[in-house]
Amino acid sequence: MVTRTLTADIIVQALSRRPEIAGWTLTRRRRHGTQLYVIGRDVENTREVTTEDFTVTVFHDHPWPDGHDTGIAGHARGVSSVKLVPGDIASVDARLDEVIMMASLVHNPSYELPTPETLPAVVLADPQITAADGTRRAVWEMAEAVWEACDREASTGVRLSAGEFFVTVTDREFRTSRGIHASSETTHLAVEIALLARGDSDDPTLEAETFRPVEARRVSDLRLASQVAEASRFARDTLRARPTETRDGPVVVSGSALPPFFDPFMFHSGAQAAYMKLSRFTQDDTVFGDHATVGDPLHVSSHALRPYGLSSHSFDGDGVPGRDTDLIVGGILFARHAPSRYAQYLGIPVTGEPGAVVVRAGATPLAELVRASGGPVVEIVAFSSPNVDDITGDVGCEIRLGYEHLPSGEVRPIKGGALAGNVFEAFASARFSQETQEALISGFGGGGVFVGPRGARFEGMRVAAG
Amino acid sequence: MSLSTQRHTPDPRAGSASPLTLRTQFAYLPDVIAELERSVPYASALATSSSGVRLALRDSEQGVSRRDPSAGVVLTASDGYEIEEVAVGATDEASVRNASRRLLEGLRRTRVGAHERNRNAINLEPGDQLSADYVTPVEISPDSLSLAEKLARFEDLRQRARRVDSRVVQAMARYGDAVETKVFVNRTRFITEIVHRATLNVTVFVSDGNMRRYNWLSRGGTGGLESLEVDEASLANVTEIAVALLGAKPIEPGVYDAVVDPSVAGILAHEAFGHGVETDMFLKGRARGAHYIGKRVGSDLVTIVDDPTVPGANGTYFIDDEGQSASPTCIIRDGVLMGGLSDLYSATRLGIARTANGRRESFERKAYARMSNTFFTPGRHSVEEVLGSLDHGLYICQGANGMEDPKGWGIQVGAHFAREYRHGKPTGVLFAPVSITGYVPDVLGNVTMVANDFHLHPGGCGKGWKEYITVGDGGPHVRTRLQLA
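^ Those are the sequences you sent over. The predicted structure of the assembly is below.
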């Protein structure tokens, strides 16, 4: 007996039999991975995951409903998507019937799919992981690295509470009705570790924890030994931290606490935000509104071509080639990151979806930014959660760990309380460190993947007591 | 048939699911489990699927799509020391039997080192015999409206919110419905569950030419369209508050007498003693609450419950993802910490009672101890009495987000705005945004009044920075004293 399975070719053939659609895109995504969960040195769970799916997006052109603007194209474009899995082989036509019907019911200004272009080569997969059994080897390699690093911290009273190790290989094929046929292979590693620090007391309620999530495309990029060493130091410092006091003085935000502060700048630089009338930025105008720029000039770019970058891509979801784009130059909106659809709506150049957020570093050493003169300087290295509002730019984040740099040179850890302010005001007078960092988390709280200064000093934000 | 009147076709993966079809489709699973248990002491299978429709409506743009359908099976096996799982994005017998073979191979490979790594054996219990089928009651089925009718209904809602004020620059409506199926099988259990779900969110953005503010309204949970009713006053209120927020002031950091609305109270309960009593965190030494069972952690007025059986709530289910029948758990009673929320692994390791809180983001992820619907229980005062008691304080509204700190007992809750109250009356002054921080026992210990109202809100919950699941949280209006910034 021959068992047929769903393939991209079968879907493309089915789509080609549908003259009523104006265009389509098809993405086949096949993923396999290994997950390892440990509690201390004990293994709780080892998992293997395999999935395959096909996302079909269809476009349907039809007259605008009565009373609606006819638009430049004279017709509306409906778009709808459906996801198929290999078991859907017998229902491909029924699924297409449905998605075409759905697309026929919605009305959008017309836009065209991109035409094929030469795609840049962007390396996004580690061959050691894509090799046979590579995902299983990699999770154990990561776990061993964390266990060894934690062993080195044992003498300081710090131990591993728990760790989670994920390795996923994704193979993606992308095709469109305009003739784009591209593929990519990516590897993705995610590690979460929780470290516990115990002081002189045996009381477990007096322990302190540091939680650290990191992501990369290669094991070596995770720098697990240094991640553990820094997390260990944070846990020990949390143990002896004193409560934060209310202050109006300068604040330095550094390390992984900083990248989310750039999220509102990325949001308001986007063509979609402009089309939705949500962007407060205007082309060739300052991004700080009425606030005079007295700090380091703000330069923000999007880089999609960094090898092994978490946000890098050879082509985006429409098939637009990945590229690097300057967005904010010297505090002025220079260009918008613009996927094909919104670029056409606004009549601006297509840049494709954004890649890593790249911010130009400053000229001042971080040690200088945190140096206290008249009063203490508060440096915040970890928030409980990066609560930065993309729309308003408002910040309200609980301080998980920070340091008070005193004029005497003493540095005291602090915890609790909150940092409050607004990034559009604060960045007008911000100064950036000359040291740089590459953030290792792309998801929640990572601000996209960030490459930029290790720290920024703000004069207009407020630290509130805990 | 005209397209505009066509009902959307039920998705064969889930939309037309019934207990009988699920039992027929997965009739092979008991045999797979029996075969696995010839090699290991415990095995189980969980088959899940979800499907539905999603609408996204805003100015000059409309989107409609199938919700990301997922369908897959995860096989779980324990060799008596640790757990191994294989998850496949397929539900046919051949794929699952192949996964079963891979699971045994994996166990053989890891078993070599298992006894050295894990000092303690673990004996996972399958539970009492149970064969049951559960389906969410639905009053108004989403299928009773055609897709065109849904588009028209929610576009009209969006337009009505938009028309309230000329300063509105954008209004969005997002609607979703879903059918989620679950089949759990181990050597004593074959259980099916079909959960229907409908959600609605309306968000309005306003501008004074420079500043942008927004506000939103959310409805929905498990069940049908009956949970999505929005009256005209509520819709207008969304826009009016967004406009009022254009004049809101930043709050002066400090400690305030405050009344929190049910949405904020829910996030407080969720972050303070929801995450804080997930017993996998006990096992990892990451929860201070493990050492406070039976001890006072709040005022006498504080009772917090996690209950997956609340009809219609967003975090409602019949069985958890490890086959445990749903039932409520009292976390804090009259200010005293009673116990935690457990999954199978942590309950077995800790030797504590199982609660129905072993939940997965999807078949692709492992089960953890997770919340369902977490809330303060109502008290005896009217809302008017509670608000009227604020001589000089704040009424904190529209909970937006939160973050847990089970080890340090810190808390972060973001609220969208607060109304100033003097002598029991609102002054008209708004503050936005508002961040609640502080030490959890202080927040709960300072509770002095609890109202007799009760509202649950739909929400999503992550564990750490991932593992998103649907939950509900809420309760009554609660008066306490809070550190705000």
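Residues 127-172+180-240 of chain A form one domain. The two ends of chain A are 69 Å apart (CA to CA).

Shout if you want it in another format.
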